[in-house]
Amino acid sequence: MSWEIVMGLEVHAELSTQSKIFCGCSTEFGAEPNTHVCLGCAGFPGSLPVLNKAVVEYAVRAGLALNCDITKINRFDRKNYFYPDLPSAYQISQLFAPICRNGSLEIETNGEKKQIGIHQIHMEQDAGKLVHEARITMMDFNRSSTPLIEIVTRPDFRSSDEVIAYLEKLREILLYLDVCDCKMQEGSFRADVNLSVRKAGDEKLGVRTEMKNINSFKAIARAIEYESARHIEVLEEGGTLVQETRRWDDDRGQSYSMREKENALDYRYFPDPDLLPIAIDDEWLASIKESLPELAHQKRERYISEYGIAPADTVILTGHKNISNLFEQLVEKGAKATEAANLIVGELMYLMNTTSTLLEDLDISADKLATLISLFTEGKISRAAYKDVVKAVFVDDVCPESYIDEHKLVMVSDTNVIDKVVEAIVANNPKAVTEYKEGKEKAFGFLMGQAMKELGSAGNPDMVRAKLKELL
Ligand code: ZN
Ligand code: MN
Predict the structure, then answer these.
(1) What pTM was computed for the model?
(2) Which CATH number fits domain 415-471: 1.10.357.10, 2.40.30.90, 1.10.3470.10, 1.10.10.410?
């Protein structure tokens, strides 16, 4: 009997606004504990929340990019529960009127496209952080009240590949929108997986378990494999599953029961009396729509149709905003699009890999690279010299023109110079010349190499080849 895995995802994305959702405290990550805290975000009774308008805008941006309907009248609700990282004992969230509903995101796995339904996106505040040390636990409220959007999908996933494809695309969209920095290791992009299994063909969903805050895509894939196998094993042995929240321990490769899963009723949600409803009028919505940037998948389509870039290369060119920005700047500055793409996909990626430079840390002058591409396409420097200078710009931010002068890299296209060198090489290597005339192609390569060596990386290889052929 074959089993089908059914999954839905809840992603919590911390919004990259300067200040928190209901007070003016900074959202900076990694500050000294409890330095970005006021009475409001520390949950003192009597302090009143004031909504940060940017949070609404960011949530709408995400909703529009995910094809959602935007709720015109938004309300906040209190979700009541006790935990030491939540000093007010309730989280301000949205249950009855979430800001975005009925969206979708298209994913692709093994060449097949599929729509994942977005049930809703709601705004809420983050909790503080518990810091465990030896036998004590400390509270850090810097994160308390950092703005979050929670993006909830429909139970549309059937494999870990689909889950990872969705998370990668969602992260790419949020990064391009500039609403979240999506650093899983810093907790600004956290995924909870709701999983159940059923016999293939069944309509009814099985008992689901939820695994929270798994901190890498690879760990998510492992957690899904383990948990689905566990469900199937329990059911095949005639056992019953409990609806519960489980913790994934990636080191041990196992999930553990944390607590029985609460229902919405357990949280005794009710409208927050301290916050007025927020109206999003047509004008505001239109201006947010207007400000949306071109997204990665839209760029990929355009790079193919407008510039004729190979599809595989467009994936690299849009892998991070820093890369697509650089590519577009180079084109804008007059570099040939295909040459700009070759430079980035080839030499630049190679340099970034060998120096372990992260995409988010890429910092290279588009002006200098554009100049270099022109020098190369106009035949002023050879391919070998081009590579040298790209490296020097990448590593030491040198000025391409003076570097080329200093290292005598201007391509020698002077007929007199080249002829002289080639004539000397032919005269001094009679053995190779005879071999070539006897049909040994290799000998030509040898003579070519000798001439190029003599000319340094500045010789024009086409002219050298032509002269050599002529003499032989
Ligand atoms: Zn505060
Ligand atoms: Mn939540």
Answers:
(1) 0.83
(2) 1.10.10.410
